[in-house]
Amino acid sequence: MTTSWPGLEKGSGILKSATSAWRDFAVVTTPSPWALAKGVLPEPRTVILATDLKRKTLECLRERVRGASMIVGVGSGLSIDTAKYLAKTENAALAQVLTTSSNNACFTRTAWTFEGNARIPERDVPFPRQLILDYQVLMQAPVRMNQAGAAEILCSHTSLFDWRMAHAASVDVQWDEELCRSTQDELDRLDDYAPAIGAGECDAFVEIIEVGAKFARGFTTHPKARFNSGSEHILAWALEQQGGRHLIHGEAVNLGVLLMAHIQGNNPERAADIIRTAKMCFQPEQLGITWPIVETIVMRLPEFARNVPWHTIITEFDRRGEDGRHDLASRFSAARDFVRRLR
Question: I want to staple 225 with a disulfide (CB 3.0 to 4.6 A). Which of 19, 24, 174, 193 is the partner?
């Protein structure tokens, strides 16, 4: 098995040559990515169309890939996490074919699964043997999905705040000054190519993915460090689970960043400038949900966050009981008004 992160194999039309030696592999995918890749890849022994990340569903899939020497995720978050889970549980090698820049799931060694409403991490999945990015495939994904991937960098705006707060409270969060600095550098650099993201340029989408590859090392060496996911991700996950419809992950994160940055008192205007320059969606009506749904979910966040082993500003609201609940409600009201005014 591979014991470290591989280099990203990237280029226009690279998919065929990068996979030509594959044999005895199973594919996990969804319909749109598979339509783009199936005519290029060698013939797999089986193809699984992923539907959800419920543990019961994933366990039922194990028999279908049993005996395959390698599990290949083709697509984005759902396919990637399903492939990670199956590779670990069936002791198979793992490869990932990225088809959008919409999230960084391929660069973590955790597959997020569900039991009821509880979000359960399956940790220490295998390092992928290969990570492949074909620009021709990438640019056939909806522009909106590729643009949304910038949220997986922008989220450090709020997560670094949470990480510093937890460190100041003497929580064991593997504080690392150099990791904090390098993350802030990547966050600052996002200003430079946000206009190209908004213009739908391939190089900008590739840059989003390459930043994810840089972050992968920190995810591995500092698993407790909240340098790239914090309260904004907890809110995004709650919206995805309880919002009543499928959401593009990065767009839910955008809304989470804006609301949580305002709640933190953490320069939400800067986050808003990047989101608008990159032309990412963030308003609830753009996501297909409503403000009353968002308010209900935000007010339940302290309870929801107890299932996530992270110390964030949400933890502090929860610790303060009824006083914290009133404070959260007041801060959310102001944050909602701020986001509503953004266009």
Answer: 174
